[in-house]
Amino acid sequence: ARVLQEARIGAHVSIGGGTEIGRGCHIGDRTRIGANVFLPPNSVIGTDVFVGPGAVCTDDKYPVAGNAEYYAAPPTIEDGAVIGACALLLPGVRIGKGARVAAGAVVTEDVPDFTLVVGMPARIRAMPESWGIAEHISLK
User: Fold this and answer.
1) In 3-state terms, the chain is what percent helix, strand and coil (to 5)?
2) Of 4, 16, 18, 21, which has the most beta carbons under 10 Å away?
3) Phi then psi for 33, rounded to 5 degrees?
4) What does pTM read for this prediction?
């Protein structure tokens, strides 16, 4: 894994091989980042977050080499959220507390707290009651 300058990594964090944690990222305690994940500079990841292998976060809405008007818009993933394998988070999205992003989903807009999104583009689906989300996540 590559952890770039000024990244702040919390206690008991696991980072998989082949992952790149961009400069200035903040990762909360007890978070697990799978193998081959990309987090652009200044991404904010909360506590107790799971990011599945191969997930990619982006921060450039208009990617052009040498763009003088480049404005970084990294994602924010809040406490207790789960990002499935190979999910793609587009620039500036917020993944809410306890939210779930299905494997392979393409997230183009914010995901509300305790919501499940699936598909391309990601759309809200009913959270299975059997997941007992609120009961199993300690959000301080």
Assistant:
1) 5, 30, 65
2) 21
3) -110, 120
4) 0.90
Measured distance CA(104)–CA(42) in Å, rounded:
23
CA distances from 87 to 27, 64, 68 (A): 18, 23, 29
3-state secondary structure of 107: strand
C-alpha span between 90 and 92 (Å, rounded): 7
> Amino acid identity, residue 131?
W
Closest to 109 in 3D by CA, of 88, 125, 80: 88
pLDDT digit string (tens) for 76-109?
999 999 999 999 999 999 999 999 999 999 999 9
Q: 53 to each of 35, 42, 125, 127, how far by Cα in Å?
A: 5, 20, 22, 22
| CA 34 and chain centroid, separation | 11
Cα distance between residue 37 and residue 45, in whole Å = 13
First and final C-alpha spacing in the chain? 29
Which residues are registered as beta bridge partners of 106?
88
Cα–Cα distances (Å) from 75 to 34, 37, 130, 131, in that order, read 17, 13, 28, 25
